[in-house]
Structure of Cobalt-precorrin-6A reductase:
Amino acid sequence: MRALILGGTSEGRELAALMSARGWLVTSSLAGRVASPRLPVGEVRIGGFGGPAGLARWLIDQEVEVVVDATHPFAERISISAAEATRATGVPLIALHRPAWEPVARDKWRMVDTMEEAARITERDYHHILLTIGRQQLAPFAHDDLNLYVIRCVDRPDAPLPARHRVILDRGPFTVAAEKKLMRDNQIDCVVTKNSGGEHTRPKLDAARELGIDVVMVRRPELPGGGRITVVHTAEAAFNAAMEL
Ligand code: NAP
């Protein structure tokens, strides 16, 4: 069987390993945003397809039998592309998206729908803000000249950035103890994060709870669903769904 995994996540890499070990011909596709990405096993292609039509052509040319959308829950456009291209070609689509984080007792979360809303809150209510939102959506925070922003991401972010900022280049994995130290050392009073879900970046939420720090949590966008898309939450479930096709 020949599968295309739209990746860029740990679940995508896990699934590529599972499928390859069972003899599937797997191509993982990455957007090319990160300078030296963690690579999955099997074949890898890097770069966009040119929208839904380009992806549909690729699926036909490569005789793909199943597409797994294992992209990050905030990667909206590629998920829409996957839904449209598979609808047009009739190739089955499995959407592998890790469950969202849910607050537990003593969490102090403020839920927002957009990064602009998050920026309005941090500018008004906080002073030392930890941004763990990647480097593509920093612009809404850039005009705040008063407060300090600690920006943690994998690759160096481009301007515009807030006047007072510190950049920490790190891709984890992170521990609760290290996250608490980072927050204490920088006198953080607010953490901004997308509701990415998963275990790898959860320690920042545990650290914030233990230190009594507020979290501004950006809700997930609606991703395409529908009768012809099988939605699963783990690599193993995606593998089982693919085996049943
Ligand atoms: P996006 O806004 O949904 O995608 C923008 C464009 O990038 C797409 O239209 C597509 O170009 C191309 N693209 C995205 N993912 C691709 C993939 N896996 N393979 C080939 N082309 C891809 O995506 P994004 O938010 O920039 O995220 C890019 C990648 O980073 C995703 O693969 C995602 O899994 C990973 N990632 C994203 C986040 C996040 O917070 N957004 C966090 C961690 C990892 P064409 O239209 O030309 O095909």
